[in-house]
Amino acid sequence: MSSALDRLKALTNKITSFEGSRKENIAKLKDLYKRLKIDEKIPKFEDLFTYKAMNVTGLSLQAQDLGAIKENRYVQIICISYDKEAKGPKSKNSSLGYFGRSDSISEAVKKDVVKFILCWRFEKSFMTLEHYNDMIATVDAAS
User: Fold this and answer.
1) What letter would DSSP give residue 125?
2) Are 65 and 39 in contact (CB under 8 A)?
3) What is the pTM for the complete model shown?
4) Within 13 Å of residue 143, how many CA atoms lie on the same side as its CB?
5) Distance (Å, rounded) from C-alpha 2 to C-alpha 68?
6) DSSP of 16-74, one letter per residue?
C-alpha cells in the first residue's frame, strides 16, 4: 500500500512541477513576445499558437551549440503554417521578426530570440499533449 501511495505522491509532485513550469514559461513567453516586438506582427498573443512550427535562421537551436551564430546569415524568427486546401506547396513560412546579421546581433537579443523559440515550443508541446488527451477521452467515451 505504501509503495502505491508513494508512486501517487511522486506523480502528483511531477504534475504540479510541470504546471508551475508551464505558468512560468507563459509569463516569459509573453514578455519576450513584447520585447522582441512580435506583438506588432501578431497583435493577439494566442494567435502565436495557430502556427504548426517555429524556427530561427542564423542561430543554432541544437543542444550541443545552443545559440551559436551561423556566420554570414541573417537572424529571423520563422513560423510555419499549413494549408490543407492548397494545391501547390502545403506549408507557408512567415517571418515574425528580423534582427539583422548574425555576426552583429547583440548577446541580449540573441538570447531573447533563442529563449522565445524554446518557450514557444515548450507551450506548443503542452497544447499537443492536451489535444491528444482529449482525443483519447473522446474515443474512450464512445466505447
Assistant:
1) H
2) no
3) 0.82
4) 6
5) 48
6) HHHHHHHHHHHHHHHHHHHHTTGGGT-SSGGGGGGSSEEEEESB---GGGTT-B-TT-E
Residue 1's pLDDT band (boundaries 50, 70, 90)?
A: low
- pLDDT on residue 30: 97
Could you give the CA distance from residue 68 to residue 89 in angstroms, rounded to a whole number? 31
Cα–Cα distance measured from residue 107 to residue 75, given in angstroms and rounded to the nearest whole number = 12
How many Cβ atoms are within 10 Å of 102's Cβ, its own excluded? Answer: 20
Local structure of 82: helix, strand or coil: strand
Residue with cell 535562421: 57
d(CA 86, CA 19): 37
pLDDT tens-digit map of 79-125: 998 877 777 677 888 999 999 998 899 999 999 999 999 999 999 98
